[in-house]
Batch of 3 targets.
Target 1
Amino acid sequence: MTDRPSEFGDGEPVVTDKRRIDPETGQLRETAKAAGGPSPDPAAAQPPRDPSDLIGPSAQEALLTEALAERTADLQRLQAEYVNYKRRVDRDREANRELVIGSVLTELLQTLDDIGRAREAGELEGAFKAVAESVERVTEKLGLVKFGEVGDEFDPRIHEALMHNYSDEVDRPTATLVMQPGYRLGERILRAARVAVSEPTEQLPEAAADNKPEE
């Protein structure tokens, strides 16, 4: 019978103490040493290096410059969006303000007409005169502008022709009588001026010119 070699060689059996607590000191042993394993690699235990450590100073500066340019562009875009938003809000606010004021002033136009007729008739006196002038000052302060005078060139955008004739005394369509003044608020026409319009005689249609009585 052949003797088989011992599993542990020719020496004495090796006993490995795998207890985590040292029975003599009562301290926790290091796992790797207690298990009899190899000591950990110091290089593997180190934290991963920052990628910026792997590139040169010039490359780092280029990356920082690019990042700064991107952040600056973002801030400029945000600022432009805010400015545009503020402009829209201010424009809408002003438009709403003009609509409200225009509605109020439109309701006062008839009162202003009455004041004008009373002034022309010489009836604007005493307390009534003071109140009327106060109303006119308030409407002017709110931006109401009166327009429409005899001699104005007729403009269909701001004039409403209630009467029409031909005259040798004008060289273009002209308002020769203002029946009711017009009013505007800013660029908005609250009411067109209602006028009588005279056109030059040479613009008289041929048939009508033949029937015109000689002077």
Note: The longest strand covers residues 159-167.
Target 2
Amino acid sequence: MNSEPADQIRLLDLQDLDTKLSQLAHKRENLPEHAEIDALEADLTQLRDLLVAAQTEEGDTAREQSKAEKDVDQVRQRSVRDQQRLDSGAVTSPKDLESLQREIASLAKRQQDLEDVVLEIMERNEAATARVSELQDRVASVRTKADDASARRTSATGELDAETTRVTKEREVVAGSVPDDLLKLYDKLRAQQGGVGAAKLFQRRCEGCRLELNITELNEIRAAARDEVLRCENCRRILVRTSDSGL
């Protein structure tokens, strides 16, 4: 293939722009905010699960406490009624009096036991409530951090997208000035060679594979016509000659 030296040199400009676009895409994909947000979202998921469990325990203990308090109230009311019967003098039979006194004593013991249960449940409910409050604060804190990271990511991606748009337009202009057959070869090689389709011959070294050319290769390049499109014998990329090639 033959192409004017100026067209070949424009390939280096095109390669610089394509390299820049690849770097921008890589930077966008690997913004530190991506990993930061993923970690924070994972923390949020875990904290929310813990919060749901704590809220469930809080609700369960609240209902358990309410039932236990009703049980205490029922025993207390029964005890009050029995005491009133005892104090009224309506019960005169010694046997009935003894039975009533035993029941009052039994109810007092039952009430004490139930009140102990209520206290134990209250302690568990208070602990669950405190846990809910703590987890709500932690969720809010992590959510704030995640929102901040999201805002930073949006800002960073916006800047990168704007730069990508600018470079893409510049690439279109440069690509439009390169002959179609040369551009087609460049794009094909760039796809095959990890994003680099053309490289400068600098100080007798291919800037694509970073290998120095041997004397035979250099002599062949020296003998080639100025408009001949050369390829590196090592990496097969388009090898562009410049004033810095050291020929």
Note: The longest strand covers residues 198-202.
Target 3
Amino acid sequence: MDFRQLKAFLTVAETGNVTRAAQLLNIVQPAVSRQIRLLEEDLGTQLFERGRHGMALTEAGKALVEYGQRAMLELERARTVLKSSETRISGLVTVGLLPSTSDILASALVTAVAQQHPGIRVRIAMGYAGTLLRWLEAGEVDTALLYQAERSSEIQTTPLIQEPLWVVGPRDSGFKRNKPVPLSKLVGRKFILPSAPHGIRTLVEHACRAADVSLDLSAETNALSVQRSLVLGGHGLTILPPIAVAEDLAQGRLSGAPITDPDITRTIVLALPSNRSTGRHIRSVVDILEQEMQRGVRSGLWPESRWLAG
């Protein structure tokens, strides 16, 4: 197996067509077919089903796509490190952001990186903490924001922000930021919560066990936008950090209050892999990400939060 074979294979897998792959690779069609044939002979297995309508991956081919994409990503990272000069930092950096943080951070991060390091291209990957952790371990993202509860021997974390979780409801719910609500007072109300094992769901369930209470769920969802929409539609209350619905709270579309007895807080950490090197371009983006997060806390754009880093 060599680089040309792997690149030809991935291009055919993506297009499903040898002719189209040849056009993208800027080589003749027989050369692409030959690279695929040599790769199949080397591996001793068929990677595609050839048909009238194109090339369909076999089960072996589907498995190789995953490994091949990771290998190509690592090669691209190596090329970036080797080509970077002392005066200009360049390369692609993939940053994993939590849904509740993407609105405040994505645009600010991309803008700041473009201004300070125009040779760096930022890719934003959004997902929940468990998903981001898997992507980080697999090398699909270079750095990510996680909850402190996410653990792995293959990552190193730095706590950056601590923030409370609030009960949030429609504007007529009567919640106020200066009037904390005991968790026991929410018993009997309908709730929309993230599906397990989402980080916020885990924190809420732990608090409920500590207070010996049980919340009544009317719906579960793994999409923050759906969670927000259901609350606005009057289907129940939810529990979120204020940053997740900051604009709705500011505009009065939703109302919210801190939860007490017990307090529920989450800690956001910056995670980097400990099992592979981190290039200058990644470190540069990480520094800017931290700066933008700290700016959000100090300016009040990240409501009710506390900066933990030095």
Note: The first strand starts at residue 48 and ends at 51.
